[in-house]
């Protein structure tokens, strides 16, 4: 089974509107971390936001917030007031805390967001 | 200086060539990673180094050979590659491997094309 599922291959949003990118995850660990990354066409994977499984509040970073619903195993990214520069691929990732050794990040297949002027 | 740099940004090579990808991190991190990103596939972790020791090798073919001379530099040596090895190769670093909070920071990647 896939650890991270992103069901939206592509999304469109009007400039200045908010958009939600979906992410569900699969783990039996109690301790885990959830990450969102942005990948513009230049290729660099840019870290956006982190949510720990024990964090009681949803993470926020500027215009990014993470809608964390633990019981549903979902970690959706909300981008408010979209800007043209937000057009990119967005990846959800998870690291399970029970792992020893490598800091393995499991990535989803990504969602391509296009912001329309 | 940006956090994680990679050179070259683009590389075209024949199947008989030998080349190397370089990654350098300026974040004072102790762990470094190589990932492969192919079209329409999730990122694949290739190698992990912690304090210059390799801790993970995810069944990567021997035509890919990593080298970590110190905690700031990571190389990926390439030889006798196949066309299916064409992909974006991303380097990342993190403070450590300790727990689920360790965030990985990525470089801009090397776009590799094997002819």
Account of the protein in words:
The complex is a heterodimer of chains A (117) and B (115). Chain A has 117 residues and is an all-beta fold. Chain A contains no helices and twelve strands. The radius of gyration of chain A is 14 Å and the shape is globular. The model of chain A has no long low-confidence stretch (mean pLDDT 92). By secondary structure, chain B is mainly beta. Chain B is built from no helices and eleven strands. Chain B has strands at residues 4-7, 10-13, 18-25, 31-37, 44-50, 53-57, 64-70, 73-79, 87-94, 105-106, 110-114. In chain B, the strands form two sheets. In chain B, strands 2, 4, 5, 6, 9, 10 and 11 form a seven-stranded mixed sheet that branches. In chain B, strands 1-3-8-7 form a four-stranded antiparallel sheet, with no helix packed on it. In chain B, strand 5 (44-50) and strand 6 form a beta hairpin. Chain B is globular and about 40 Å long. The interface between A and B is medium-sized, with 29 and 29 residues.
Give a topology summary.
The complex is a heterodimer of chains A (117) and B (115).
Chain A: E1 4-5, E2 10-14, E3 19-21, E4 24-25, E5 32-39, E6 46-52, E7 60-61, E8 64-69, E9 74-79, E10 88-96, E11 106-107, E12 111-116
Parallel strand pairs in A: 2-12
Antiparallel strand pairs in A: 1-4, 3-9, 5-6, 5-10, 7-8, 8-9, 10-11, 10-12
Chain B: E1 4-7, E2 10-13, E3 18-25, E4 31-37, E5 44-50, E6 53-57, E7 64-70, E8 73-79, E9 87-94, E10 105-106, E11 110-114
What is the tally of helical segments of chain A?
0
Q: Most extensive interface: pair and counts? A: A-B, 29 and 29 residues
| Largest sheet, strands/sense/barrel of chain A | 6 strands, mixed
Shape of chain B: globular
SSE topology string of chain B = EEEEEEEEEEE
Strand content of chain A: over 45%
Number of helices of chain B: 0
Oligomer kind: heterodimer
Average pLDDT of chain B, rounded to a whole number, is 90
For the residues shown, what is the average pLDDT of chain A? Answer: 92
**Order of SSEs of chain A, N→C?**
EEEEEEEEEEEE
Largest sheet of chain B: 7 strands, mixed
């Amino acid at each position: 089974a896939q650890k991270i599922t992103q069901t939206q291959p592509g999304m469109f949003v009007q400039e200045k509107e908010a958009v939600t990118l979906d992410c569900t995850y699969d783990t039996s660990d109690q301790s885990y971390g959830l990450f969102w990354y942005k990948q513009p066409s230049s290729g660099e994977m840019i870290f956006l936001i982190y949510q720990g499984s024990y964090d009681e509040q949803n993470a926020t970073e500027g215009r990014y917030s993470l809608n964390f619903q633990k019981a549903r195993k979902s970690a959706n990214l909300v981008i408010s007031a979209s800007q043209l520069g937000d057009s990119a691929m967005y990846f959800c990732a998870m690291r399970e805390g029970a792992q020893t050794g490598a800091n393995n990040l499991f990535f989803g297949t990504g969602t391509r967001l296009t912001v329309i002027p | 200086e940006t956090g994680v740099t990679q050179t070259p940004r683009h590389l075209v090579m024949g199947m008989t060539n030998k080349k190397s990808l370089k990654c350098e991190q300026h974040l004072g991190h102790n762990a470094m990673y190589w990932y492969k990103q192919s079209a329409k596939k999730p990122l694949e972790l290739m190698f992990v180094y912690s304090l210059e020791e390799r801790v993970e090798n995810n069944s990567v073919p021997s035509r890919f050979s990593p080298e970590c001379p110190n905690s700031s530099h990571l190389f990926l040596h390439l030889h006798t590659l196949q066309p299916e090895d064409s992909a974006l190769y991303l380097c990342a670093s993190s403070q450590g491997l300790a727990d689920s909070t360790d965030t990985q920071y990525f470089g801009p990647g090397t776009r590799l094309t094997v002819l």
